[in-house]
Structure formats: C-alpha cells, structure tokens
Amino acid sequence: MDKASRPTKAHLCKIFSSARKGPKEKTFGSICNSVWLAAERDNTLRAAVAFAAGAGSWERSPELRKRLLTAVDNAKAPIMLVQAANDYSTAPSRALADELDRLHKPYLLKIYPPVGQTPDNGHNFVYTGINQWENDVFRFLDEHLKH
Predict the structure, then answer these.
(1) CA–CA distance, 106 with 101 (Å, rounded to integer)
(2) E strand or H helix at 143
(3) Strands ordered across the beta sheet of 107-112
(4) What angle do CA 1, 47, 56 make, to 5 degrees?
(5) Choosing a second label site near 55 at 20 to 30 A (CA), which of 37, 66, 76, 91?
(6) What is the Rg, in whole angstroms, of the alpha carbon atoms belonging to the chain?
C-alpha cells in the first residue's frame, strides 16, 4: 500500500470514532469480531489487524475463546494483534498469537506500554494511541499488501 492510497490518520480517527455509541459505550467488540470473521471467511483478504481482541470477555466467555481460536485456525490472511499492556487482559492476544505460531501462520503480536492509569485507558488505546501504533500497523499492511 503506497502512502497516497492509505487512509490518513484523520480517516482512521473517523472510523474508530464512528464506532462509538457514546462516551463510554463502544461497538468496538463488534468491529473486532468482524475482523476475525473476515480473516476466517474471505479468501481475498490479504491482511487483518485486530485491536484488543476479546480483552474484556476472554476469561468469562468460553464460547468467545473457542470462536476466536477457530477463526485463527481457519484464517488465511496474516494477522496483526495490537493492544496496550494495561488493557483489560492481554491473555486473548497472547493465546491467539500462540495458536497462530503453533499453526505456522504469519502474524505480529504488538503489545504497547501501558497507556493512562486504568484498564479503560488501555482499552481505549485504539482511539488515543494512534501516534504510537500507526506506523507499526501501516508497516505490517505495507509488508502484506504489496502487489
């Protein structure tokens, strides 16, 4: 992906901001689930980036764990897992990366230093930490989207 065709930081902010229902309530879980379903089912997808996959639900939802691990098993595209160290839990990203590694599938796990003081701050890293993750995400996409 060349710089002229990639979304701008403002565009990314708009995408992520439009996913919010209100100041604290977000539909980001749905966006994340869509990333996994697309990676699993769309053979034309060439790369996927998932932010804080299952961070708020992993420990209490065996169904979610099973579903995301199944999606990883079936995924064809390289996957980048992104989150802050102080998110609700980094266990899902680590478990999904372990599964991708076991299957010898291309992936990148990137856990950034804590952001703010709380797990809520860490989980909002997708919105508030664009300056930190932007170059890494585009580098991953550039690597996997070359023609």
Answers:
(1) 8
(2) helix 130-145
(3) 48-51, 79-84, 107-112
(4) 125
(5) 76
(6) 15
What is the C-alpha end-to-end distance of the chain, expressed in Å?
8
Give the pLDDT confidence score for residue 115 in this predicted structure. Answer: 95
The dihedral sign for the CA sequence 92, 33, 110, 57? negative
CA 68 to chain centre: 12
φ, ψ dihedrals at 77, nearest 5°: -90, 150
In DSSP terms, 132 is beta-bridged to none
pTM, rounded to two decimals: 0.78
- What span, in angstroms and rounded, lies between the C-alpha atoms of 105 and 96? 11
137: its two tokens? 């995400």
Write a three-state SS string for 62-95.
Answer: HHHHHHHHHHHHHCCCCEEEEEECCCCCCHHHHH
Phi, psi of 43 (to 5 degrees): -70, -15
Specify the long-range contacts of residues 7-16, CB closer than 8 Å, at least 24 apart: 9/130, 9/134, 12/130, 12/134, 13/127, 13/130, 16/126, 16/127
Q: What is the pLDDT of residues 27-37, one digit of tens each?
A: 445 445 566 66
